[in-house]
Amino acid sequence: MTRALSGRNITLQHGDYAASIASIGATLRELTFAGRNLVVPFAESEMRPAYRGATLVPWPNRVVDGRYVWEGTEQQLPLTEPGRGHALHGLGAWLEYGILEQSEAAVTLGTAMVAQDGYPFTLDIAVTFRLDDEGLHSSVTATNRGTSAAPFGTGPHPYLVAGAGRVDEWKATVPAASVLTVTDDRLIPTGLEPVEGTQFDFREQRVIGDTFIDHAFTGLARDADGIAEVTVRTNDGTGVVMSWDAACPWVQVHTADRDDAPEISRIGLAVEPMTCPPDAFNSGTDLITLDPDAQATASWSIRAL
C-alpha cells in the first residue's frame, strides 16, 4: 500500500473556509478562503518543505548546538539544522499523528513522544484544528506521562499569504516593542533591543520592502482579551491575520528568503507564535516546566481579511 509523503490528508470545510491537514507533524498543509490561499501550501504527495505549517513540539525554533542542561544533567539533541549546528523546531515535526476526533469542520490529532537521547521524557501531544466563521483555530496540549519534570515549548510554523505578489509588496503590522537580536551566521540570540528606530519596527502598518527578518519579537500589545495579532495585507486590501493567546509571549517572523531557490524566495511571511524564545532550553526564558501528569496548552488562529 502506497502512502502520500505528507501522510494522511484530512480535509476540513466551513463556509468559505477550507483546510487540509497532513498527519505527519500535525501539519497545516493548505488553508483557503473563497479559494484564496491564506498560507503557502504544499502538495499531498510532497514531503513537507521548510517546516511549512508544522506543529513544533517540544520546543519551537532552535536549541543552540543541540546542547542543554536539565536538572544537572547535560543533554545532547540530534543536530537537525546541520548548516548552523543546532537542533531545530523540536522532535514532533516528523511524527505520525493519529485521529482522536473528527467532524466536517474540526479534527483532533494525537501522538506519543517517547523518551529518547537528548530528550528523556514522555509526552502525549494533542493538536486540534477547527474552522468556523472566524477562520481556523488551532491548539496544542502536551501532557507529561513520565515520572520527572520535562522542559517544554510549542508553536506553529505557517507561512502567511496576503494575496498576489511577494512579501516585498505586502504591508505588515507586528505589535512588538522588542526584538531578539541574533548573530548573522548562526542566528544565536545575543540580547533584546527596542524596535523603535530600527528596521524591525512594524508597530504601525508599513510595507515590508526588502527588509530581511528572521527574528523573535516580544513585548506584544494585546487587546482586552489578551490576544495579540499580526496582519499582512496587499495594496488592494486583501490579507490575512494571525492571532494568539497569552500562552505565547513571543512571535518569530521570517521573510522566507531563499537565495538558493529564487522561485520560492519570499513567497510567504512565516509568523510563528511561540511559548518561549529561541534557545529557551538554555536561557530558561519563558520555558515551561511540565511536571508529571501536568498539561500545557497554547492556541492561535488564522483568518482572512
Report on the structure:
Helices cover 1% and strands 45% of the residues. It has 305 residues and is mainly beta. A hairpin with a 2-residue loop joins strand 1 and strand 2. The longest helix is centred in the C-terminal third of the chain and has 4 residues. The model has no long low-confidence stretch (mean pLDDT 97).
How widely separated are the two ends?
41 Å
Main beta-sheet strand count, sense and barrel state: 9 strands, antiparallel
Please give the CATH architecture.
Distorted Sandwich
Give the count of structural domains: 1
Keywords:
globular, mainly beta, single chain, six-stranded antiparallel β-sheet, Beta-galactosidase, Chain A, domain 5, 27 strands, 305 residues
Q: Quick summary of this structure?
A:
The chain contains 1 helix and 27 strands. It is an all-beta fold and 305 residues long. It has a 9-stranded antiparallel sheet, with no helix packed on it. A 6-stranded antiparallel sheet has the order 16-25-24-21-18-19, with no helix packed on it.
